[in-house]
Amino acid sequence: IMPGRTGDIRIHDAEGFEGMRKAGRLVSECLDMLVPEVKPGVTTAHLDDLVREFVYDHGAQSATIGYRGYRHASCISLNHVICHGIPGDRPLKDGDIANIDVTVIVDGWHGDHSRMYAAGQPKRKAERLMDVTYEALMAGIAAVKPGNRFGDIGAAISSIAAKNRLSVVEDFCGHGLGQLFHDEPNVVHSARAGTGPELKPGMFFTIEPMLNIGRKDAAILPDGWTAVTRDRQLSAQFEHSVGVTEDGVEVFTTSPKGWHTPHTVAR
Ligand code: MF3
Ligand code: CO
Ligand code: CO
């Protein structure tokens, strides 16, 4: 979502954690289901069909169908697309990299999760970008504990990016979620340590850093959704939904199969 004001942040109870575990598990199983399906020749519209059928077959809802006029069960962002790529009829080519982002609603609770996939064999620089982006997400998650601040998350992410000479997209951020899809606060991925609101047990939000090989600048295509890098160089993103616990963090969207990084599964 677009960055803006950060107001009051909701605190959830044990029932909320239970709800988020179920929603997070389902969306992670959905992204596991896609791992063998992403390959050269397959269209992104077909992958979106598989997502929609999986979600409905499990008695859940898609949070994105009907969201501000969006009509698909996933966002599929190829190569230089940063996020909000619209599924379509273009078949994947060998070496394409894709972020697939799915948000489900289970019993009123939202699970929002994305991973990077590769069709066939990605280029070395694409592989490195995906590896570092995953490392950045996990470093951001490691900064989540009561007493830390939201800025500590963005500081951890931007330090991994800087060390690897990659840029962090600033035009989109993570967000609070729970019974709402996009709630307070905005979770910025590039920040200074010690800044921002304090993390408290019961806060639920996403962390979803987007890293670019070139410059951080984004542009929106005329379809009103697709965000691309202005310099058309590669971009990657991973997203988890997390909750702050009494002594740290719970990741709601962990892969049951251990396929957190699909681009490495085939290696
Ligand atoms: N899942 C995206 C996020 O991480 C939001 C997609 S909204 C859509 O916040 F309408 F583009 F699907
Ligand atoms: Co999100
Ligand atoms: Co998402």
Q: What distinguishing features does this structure have?
A:
single chain, 267 residues, alpha+beta, 4-stranded antiparallel beta sheet, 3-stranded antiparallel beta sheet, 5 helices, 15 strands, 27% helix, binds 2-amino-4-trifluoromethylsulfanyl-butyric acid, binds cobalt (II) ion
Folded structure, characterized:
There is one protein chain. By secondary structure, the protein is an alpha+beta fold. 27% of the residues lie in helices and 24% in strands. It is built from five helices and 15 strands. The protein has helices at 14-34, 44-57, 124-142, 150-163, 262-265, and strands at 61-62, 75-78, 81-83, 97-106, 109-118, 167-168, 174-176, 183-187, 204-207, 210-212, 218-220, 227-229, 235-237, 240-244, 249-251. The strands form five sheets. Strands 1, 2, 4 and 5 form a four-stranded antiparallel beta sheet that branches. Strand 7 and strand 8 form a beta hairpin. Helix 1 crosses helix 2 (44-57) and helix 3 packs antiparallel against helix 4 (150-163). It starts with 13 loop residues before the first helix and ends with a helix. Residues 2-6 have low confidence and may be disordered. Residues 112, 175, 206, 208, 239 line the site of one cobalt (II) ion (CO).
